[in-house]
Each structure stands twice: as C-alpha cells, then as structure tokens.
Amino acid sequence: MGFRMGSVDGRAVLAVDDVVYDVERASGGALPSSPRRAIAQHAALHELSARLSASDRDGAPLGPTAEVLLGPPVPWPRQVFGIGLNYRLHAAESGSELPSVPLVFTKFQGCLVGPTADIPVAAPTTDYEAELVVVIGTGCKDVETADAWDVVAGLTVGQDVSDRDLQYATKPAQFSLGKSRDGYGPVGPFVVSPDLVPDRNALSVRCEVNGDVRQADSTANMIFGVAELVSYLSSILTLHPGDLIFTGTPAGVGRTTGRYLQAGDAVTTTIEGIGTLSNRCV
C-alpha cells in the first residue's frame, strides 16, 4: 500500500483515511520522528500505512487531516534542486532556447514553508511557479535512467516563488538568491508515494490566483522527465534521502504576463493525485 507522509511540528506523520498519525509513535519507535530520516525508510512507511489502514487505530492519531497544521513534508532537506525552462511552452514564453541538458539551480532550504503558509510579497515582482517536486528516498550516485524511479520515495506539490528583479539583477542571472527569500518555497501537503498517483509520468499541474487559472499543463510535457533529472543529477553528485527536486514550471508565469503577486492574493496550486497548496499573499 502507498503512503502519504508529512510533518507536524517537525515530526514525521502519515495521513491514512483522512486521519494523521505520528510515525514514531505509531511504529512503536521502529521509525524515527525526523521526516528526513523517516523518508529514508520508505519501504517501512508503506508497511506502516498499510497496517494503520487495515486495522490498527491505536497508532497515536493526532486528529483529522483537516485539523492539523502541516509544515513542509521534509523540513530540512540536505539539498534542494530547481530546474529551469523544463516545459517547452515556458521556454518559448521566456524567449529562451530549449536547454540541451537540465538547467539546474538551488533553492536554499530556509525558504521552505508548509502548504498553507503565507507568502510574503517582499518585492513588486514576486512571481508564482507551480511545480512537481520529487523527493529522494534512497541515497544514490550514478543511477541509470531506467532505475531512477527506484530511488524516488514520493512526489509532492511545490511553489517556486521568485523575486524576478532580484533573480535578474545581474548578468548572468542569480536564480538561487531570487528564489530563496523567506517563505518563497511552499511545499506539501504530503509526500505521496508514486504508486498512489494515476500516472507518475503524466500528472496535471494547475495554478490559480484568486480563482483565475494562470498555469495548466501536464508533466508529460516536461523536456526532462523525473527519471532523466534524477539520473542526470546523480551522475554529478550524490543524492541523499529527503533531497528535493523542483522539476520546473509550465507557461503562464507573471514575468511574461505582467501579473505579479500582490498582498491579498490567494494562490492555489494543485497536482493531480498529490494534493493542493493554498497560500495567501501578505
């Protein structure tokens, strides 16, 4: 059985039938409370989720999913990667050539916040970017593309919020700094194991601002798919359990339309089979 893992107050939790369980307590101490350490034991998370779903209702329930305050599913990943220009239409709207290899930057981990956290509008060019986020479950190096999904613990929803003026303040651009202001990395609500999604290679991605659809596409249209990204990154450096890969955003961003985020806006980001982020701009 698949699993949905999140975090509450920095502790790993599982969502089973709309009830949230503390992972360490539900496992009798067999699994750690740290989300980053727990995701490294993703096979055991499958087993625990199945047991909780089948019969064990004494596994330290925290309450209904809708009543707990979720943080980022992996609060302090060792590495956070971002991929730029990974949808053909987004590359076209940006006036950029299609990359021949993945365009990689980082989001500093301090920008990560939970699925309902406020987005501080720290600059007049604060932009939204709906993204599928890959969560590594098994440490690896030099993984072949055909084997790459084996090291993926799950998938989650992300917003690669960007300060465009800061991002393009220099030439060449400073992607990492412009995308790492405090609160510029909403993630969640859960890490969903790939066996729970309808098609791990073709998931609809949608972003709405105040109910207006700004982005809508499918991950099937990524230039470099999940397996290719994992294989490429692992060919250069070691990937660790809990590492995040923001896989790129579809067309429709504010930089090309001139519609940036403002205080009071409500940003809703949904990925098919994974979940929704609901973030208010302040």
Unreliable segments (pLDDT under 50, ≥5 consecutive)?
none
Helix content: 10-25%
Q: How many domains?
A: 2
What percent of residues are in strands?
Answer: 25-35%
Number of extended strands: 17
* Annotated CATH homologous superfamily of the largest domain: Fumarylacetoacetase-like, C-terminal domain
The end-to-end span amounts to 39 Å
Overall structural class, as computed from helix and strand content, comes to alpha+beta
- Which architecture of the largest domain per CATH? Alpha-Beta Complex
Number of helices: 8
Oligomer state equals single chain
- The whole-angstrom Rg is 18 Å
| Largest sheet features | 11 strands, mixed
Instruction: Please identify the top-level CATH class of the largest domain.
Output: Alpha Beta
State the CATH topology of the largest domain: Fumarylacetoacetate hydrolase, domain 2
The averaged pLDDT comes out at 95
Overall 3D shape = globular
**Helix and strand element order:** EEEHHHEEHEEEEEEHHEEEHEHEE
